[in-house]
Amino acid sequence: MMNGIKEDIKTLLTLELGSPLFHEVVVNLSVRLKALQVQSLWYPINALVVFICQLFIACETFLLQNIH
Questions:
Q1: Amino acid 37: pLDDT
Q2: Which among 54, 49, 51, 63 is positioned nearest to 15, based on CA atoms?
Q3: Which of 11, 3, 21 lies closest to 67, judged by CA?
Q4: pTM of the prediction?
Q5: Dmax (CA) of the chain
Q6: Alpha carbon distance 57, 48 (integer Å)
Q7: What are the pLDDT digits (tens) for 6-19?
Q8: What pLDDT, on a 0 to 100 scale, did the predictor assign at position 4?
Q9: Of 40, 54, 65, 68, which sits with the fewest C-beta atoms within 10 Å of its C-beta?
Q10: DSSP type of residue 44
Q11: Contact 24, 11 (CB under 8 A)
Q12: For the chain, what is the HEC assignment?
């Protein structure tokens, strides 16, 4: 899962903001992060991972609502 997240982030850095492919990668990354967030809830030591996932999901929601 972590490799997929890493690859999605690397891909986002190369795409044009607001392009259809950018949108698709953001959605895919969001799905992966939400899955990681749920998985991390079982392990208290991963509180930082949960926080980072929540932060990214908030940013992703903002991007998807404000990019046309």
A1: 72
A2: 63
A3: 21
A4: 0.62
A5: 38
A6: 14
A7: 888 888 888 888 88
A8: 82
A9: 68
A10: G
A11: no
A12: CHHHHHHHHHHHCCCCCCCHHHHHHHHHHHHHHHHHHHHHCCCHHHHHHHHHHHHHHHHHHHHHHHCC
Q: Which two tokens stand for residue 1?
A: 């899962």
pLDDT by residue (tens digit) across 23-66? 888 888 888 888 877 776 666 656 667 777 777 777 777 777 77
Residue 60 tokens, joined: 């992703």
Q: Which amino acid is at 51?
A: F
18: left (phi over 0), alpha (psi -120 to 50) or beta: left
SS3 content of the chain, % helix, strand, coil (to 5): 80, 0, 20
* Calpha distance 34→18 (Å, rounded): 22
One-letter identity of residue 55: L
